[in-house]
Amino acid sequence: MSGLLQIEGSEKPGTGAIAVPKGLDAAGEALSRAHERLWKSQEDDGHWVFPLEADATITAEYVIYRRCMGLPVGERDRLAAEFLLATQRDDGGWARFEGAPSHLSLAVEAYFALKLVGHSPDEPALVRAREFILAEGGVEKSGVFTRIWLSYFGEFPSRGIPATPVEIMLLPDSFPLSIYEMSSWARGTVVPITMLQALDFRVPLEKGRGVSECWVTPPDRADLSFDPGPNLFSWRSFFARLDHVLHSLGRATSWRPFRKRALREAERWIRERQDRNGGWGGIVPAMVNSTLALKALCGDDDDAVRRGHEAVEAFTCPMHGGLMFQPCVSPVWDTVLVAKAMLDSGVRPDDPRLVRVGEWLLDRQILGVRGDWAKKRPDALPGGWAFEYENVHYPDVDDTAVICMLLDRIRMPDEARKKEQLQRGLRWMLNMQSENGGWGAFDVDNVREIWNEIPFADMKAMLDSPTADLTGRALEILGHFGYSLASVQAERALRFVTEKQEADGSWWGRWGVNYVYGTWSVLTGLEKMGFGPDDLRVRRGADWLESRQNPDGGFGESPGTYGEPGARGRGPSSVSQTAWALMGLVAAGRGGSTAARRAADYLVAKQEADGAWREKEWTGTGFPGHFYLRYHGYPQYFALSALGIWLRDRATAGGR
Asked: Does position 570 have pLDDT exceeding 80, yes or no?
């Protein structure tokens, strides 16, 4: 091989450097520029963190939450209003993701938040928002969470709010409708909401700050019932009728002999799960509702309320000329993926900056807390990692898997400590395999579909079911650590992903948008388990990827494909999705294909002069079909990983 370019200071290929074949120097230079930029953004203790953007509801709810806390309107509220105004669409509404149509509930919450800050309904922005809301059916057509927020101010009738009795806390863990049969994010939100409903939480509202002008039909005459569905004898219909009964009973007091006991149990449950930084579950819905529930029960002077509010305020971030409220923060996820990208693109495994990453991650392993996951895995030892700075009760499979593989690649001064903790993480992650062979994110066997039929579940996001993308990651870690195809874990996981492959060869993605993400994840896992280009699953997956490449060489897919799967793999090219597709092609043995070369050229061309990659597309998934995320770090570290992996593959192949 001639004309080789060494990347990132290693004297020998194989100890970290990539030998860049002649003719691919532009890609090698892109790695060097990206390295320089990312190293500059590393925090002193070794970690990285990038903004995590969600739709307008999160920032609107921040403003609404602050009014629920009784805080006066201040600079933070005004800056949050600026963010909302900056993200308003021309039609007056707000959208769930870039390129999506405006959405009614987003508009109602943003409109309400702007009025709470002090904006006049006669301002052009609010006039346009109100016109959009009325054209879409008015406040009465809002989603469940929008209704709940409005109800605290008396702006939505209680008969239109799903009844969530706090007495659910008294059900045994083994009961089909126990809180441990819903997802971790759902139970962390539902428990405090049951408290707020039981306490009839209400907030005084200044005259003229409500949304009465946004109702098409007056609230006392509007139909606010929940759709029972077409089948009279379905669970959906049953729960719709049950909700009506619960509302009728709620007007009486004689049927509540267990309410005080249930409130005490809910309070205990919430207090036990408060993290050291004051938050709950690392996510906004659990944090704001838990803070408000304890405030309603115990008052503003309660220490848990004070710390909870501090944790909420820490999630704000400057963005779009204002203040954005993040749905969660992603330091662990960002850090492990940047570090992986560095290793993938030629940084030495003993680089002191990567050693700092390793130490930072080891310090954040959850070793002493048996979280909610232990309800289904009582014999398993703690050992996972969480997504955020603090979230000890809810480690997740994805972070843990990637961290274990990363730590195995970094050369640490204390290798014995690293290996011991790595083994703890690996054992915990493998113990989280569900009975069907797949992995969910936070829970095991979280598959009771009945939860998605209750009126509260209008987003159909009550479960953390096993998915192909996470199971693909599990196959990757199994292969990385030498598990054979004969192992029970691998055999069951392979059966799961085989059954989940779509007719066209792709795989659905739960945590990234969408089929491009899922297909990359599974192809990488299959490659790590030794399946090559001749394997039918691999060939069909790679064929599907190549068939979805755009004329510009990139790949793109809209979050809209969760509702329109026929459009899977179609959309404007984005950096992160092109990176996933390129890594999937390399894993499938097609690094030398024209499609792979065009994808790599796309990534090189999209790098900006400062070494960064940026994208306007939203490629992260919160709740499929309803809630999406824009990870500002995704284009930067996934592009770096993809180019590094592709160049290493080309160097191994002799530049062919």
From this structure: yes
> For the chain, what's the residue count?
656
The last residue of a domain, from among 325, 355, 379 = 325
Residues of the chain above pLDDT 70, percent: 92
User: What is the model's pLDDT at position 22?
Assistant: 87
How far is residue 202's CA from residue 446's CA, in Å, rounded to a whole number? 34
Are the C-beta atoms of residues 33 and 649 closer than 8 Å to each other? no
Looking up residue 474, the CATH number of its domain turns out to be: 1.50.10.20
Residue 343: closest CA among 407, 291, 250, 292: 407
pLDDT tens digits, one per residue of 613-645 = 999 999 999 999 999 999 999 999 999 999 999
User: Quick one: 31 and 102 in the same domain?
Assistant: no
b/e sequence 248-273, b meaning 16+ C-beta within 10 Å: eebeeeeeeeebeebbebbbebbeeb
- Indicate whether 99 and 39 sit together in one domain: no
Two structure tokens written together for 120: 């006049």
DSSP 214: G
**Cα separation, 444 vs 434, whole angstroms:** 5
DSSP letters for 139-192: GGG--HHHHHHHHTTT-S-GGGS----GGGGGS-TTSTTSGGGS-HHHHHHHHH
60 vs 177: which has the higher pLDDT: 60
pTM for this predicted structure: 0.94
The reply to whether 417 and 490 lie within a common domain is yes
Do 27 and 66 have their domain in common?
Answer: no
Task: Give me the number of domains the chain comprises.
Answer: 2
The pLDDT confidence band at residue 579, using thresholds 50, 70 and 90, is very high
Check residues 98 and 225 and name the one with the higher pLDDT.
98
Q: Show the tokens assigned to 519.
A: 């297909």
Interacting residues of 102 by C-beta distance below 8 A, sequence separation 6+: 89, 91, 92, 93, 94, 95, 132
Residues 6 or more apart whose CB falls under 8 angstroms from that of 541 comprise 501, 505, 506, 507, 519, 522, 523, 526, 584, 588
Is 91 one of the catalytic residues? no
Which listed residue (55, 243, 398, 464) is catalytic?
A: 398
- Rounded to an integer, what distance in angstroms lies between the CA atom of residue 625 and that of residue 604? 32
d(CA 607, CA 601): 10
Structure token digits, residue 337? 């993926």
Do both 428 and 508 map to the same domain? yes
Range of the domain at 195: 53-325
Q: Residue 518: which H helix or E strand, with range? A: helix 515-528
Residues 635 and 608 in one domain: yes
Residue burial 395-434, b: 16+ Cβ < 10 Å; e: rest: bbbbbbbbbbbbbeebebeeeeebeebbebbbebbbbbbb
Residue holding tokens 């824009």? Answer: 630
Mean pLDDT of the chain: 92
324 pairs with which residues across the strands?
Answer: 317
d(CA 529, CA 521): 13
